[in-house]
Design brief:
About 60% of the residues lie in helices and about 15% in strands. The protein has nine helices and seven strands, in the order ααααβααββαββααββ.
Length: about 350
Amino acid sequence: MRKPTIKGILGSVSSFLLFFLTVGFIVSCCMMLFLSILADTMELTLTTDNIAAAAKITFWNVILITFLFKFADYIRRKIMVERPTKIITEATEKIMSGDFSVRIKPMQNSGMEGFNQIAEAINKMAEELGSVETLRTDFIANVSHEMKTPLAVMQNYGTLLQAPDLSDEKRIEYAKGITDGSRRMADMMTNILKLNRLENQQIYPEVSEFDLGEQICECLLQYENVWEKANIEIETDIAENVKVKADAELLGHVWNNLFSNAFKFTPSGGTVTVSLTATDHHAIVKVTDTGCGMSSEVGTHIFEKFYQGDTSHSVQGNGLGLALVKRVIDIMQGEISVESAVGKGSTFTVRIRRA
């Protein structure tokens, strides 16, 4: 409880005096008007003694009325102002200290509508801050986890390279392991930076009109060595002359991520199908693979940052590719969805507005 200060006491006294003078002026005017009308009506003569006695009674009545009004106002302020203010202040102090679980209960007294609106806004703010804190914690944990594996691999290979009687074959193998680990970390950092810039709107789309079919074919041909090495069959059905207005570079990230995932999860002898169709208003791209597929539960989280349906991490990845894809599609005001079944493969469908 706060101790009264001299400034606070002086403020209370000045407030009381102001209220007293206001009430005294109003009561005195009313009393003089009443006595004047009474004397004229009843033809009474007011003497000095009568006026003095009436003035004394009026003075003490003003004192009493002022005290009662100030006391009533004090109780009203305690219940209607200071109490809800204290509750809101304590809640905000807890939020400032990092406790985002605090919630302010609705106040049932009449006249509390304004404070209830403030409390509701604070509750929403605490909820949003709690979500942001959870995301931040998960982000740090996921980044640490994803960096731990390649760092451990690089450390082990670095230790093995220090062996004095190491053959050239082993030395090349261990050096390649270090290179792969560093490349994996570099890719993760690049994706994190891209995703951060996209989420904070630091990358602004440079819109231009181009042929979407040509771009898809160019991106697909970059993986020719991959599908030939893995003995994966390619099927394409690309409609011609499908123009879109979008950022070609950002959209290229979408196709590269989708193709990379399709080849990554499709076993040898499988098939990857790429199709492009068009309606009056949209271009529709489908990327289908005959890989391991995923459950519906995994499908609902697949576009979240660092989420990986392969919990064993047998396939290299950092769970950022599809998050990047989703963010780019959102910026393009398009849509992306996935249909999948375990053991039957997956189909990613992207809808983009046509030029």
